[in-house]
Amino acid sequence: MALNEAPADVPGAPPAADGAPAPRHVEINLDRLQQLGMVTHEGGRTPAAEDFRLIKRPLLRGARGEGGVAIPQGNLIVVTSALPGEGKTYCAVNLAMSIAMERDITVLLVDADVARPSVLKVLGLAAEPGLMDILLNDQLALADVILRTNVATLSVLPAGRANKHATELLASRSMRRLLKEIAERYADRVVIFDSPPLLITTEASVLAAQMGQVVLVVEAETTTQHAVREALRQLEPCANVNLIYNKTKAFPGNDYYGYYD
């Protein structure tokens, strides 16, 4: 598997000396995201923006190894849920957008929900080759499929084409090498993975086991305690698990709503 990611995916970096292609550039419709109530750089102090400012802080401390022992590959953060429809992709995109506002960090948002990819759809982008294509094609490099965006510090890696052996591919040595490359190539990079739901596919637990930090999204007043317990049971091998209680109602007299760490 070719892992030679051109440094050009880092904002301001020059083209690779070996002639590797610079990542493609795509335009996210930020006005559309703002109208949907999502986090954007120019969106101001919206409820979602304020909530994700709180949510990202402990994750960034873990990614940077602040306040204690450094978390191995702590800059690899997977966002998952017990069941579909709990808002994991919405949270993954908002978390990536919020972290991309940091002054000294670049963010790579990876759509790892390879059976039902939706990151590009949320961002208003067309389907593109991505993660599965790299794992299936030894001649394909990360730089061939990574997408730079009009948010200078945010890049996107699509899910790519579906494959019936997705679980085995995500558990493969090629995937482990790719994750090591993604985690270590740039010290200032945080990588957010949108994962499949834990109780629907086997891919989710395989992916989570390879991450430094896990974020489990729980839908308020909908996800059952049994589903949460089963999801947490599958995450037992993971040392750093965080929960987001999503879709909460506003408290009386409180304008902020929706996401709490």
How is this fold's topology laid out?
Layout: E1 24-26, H1 30-35, H2 47-64, E2 76-81, H3 88-99, E3 106-111, H4 119-123, H5 131-136, H6 142-145, E4 147-149, E5 154-157, H7 166-170, H8 173-184, E6 189-194, H9 203-208, E7 213-219, H10 225-234, E8 241-248, E9 258-260
Parallel strand pairs: 1-4, 2-6, 2-7, 3-5, 3-6, 7-8
Antiparallel strand pairs: 4-5, 8-9
Please describe what this structure looks like.
This protein is α/β, with parallel strands linked by helices and 261 residues long. It has a single domain, classed as Rossmann fold. Helices cover 32% and strands 18% of the residues. It has helices at 30-35, 47-64, 88-99, 119-123, 131-136, 142-145, 166-170, 173-184, 203-208, 225-234, and strands spanning 24-26, 76-81, 106-111, 147-149, 154-157, 189-194, 213-219, 241-248, 258-260. Strands 1-4-5-3-6-2-7-8-9 form a 9-stranded mixed sheet, with helices on both faces. Helix 10 links the parallel strand 7 (213-219) and strand 8 (241-248). Helix 2 (47-64) crosses helix 3 (88-99). The protein starts with 23 loop residues before the first strand and ends with a strand.
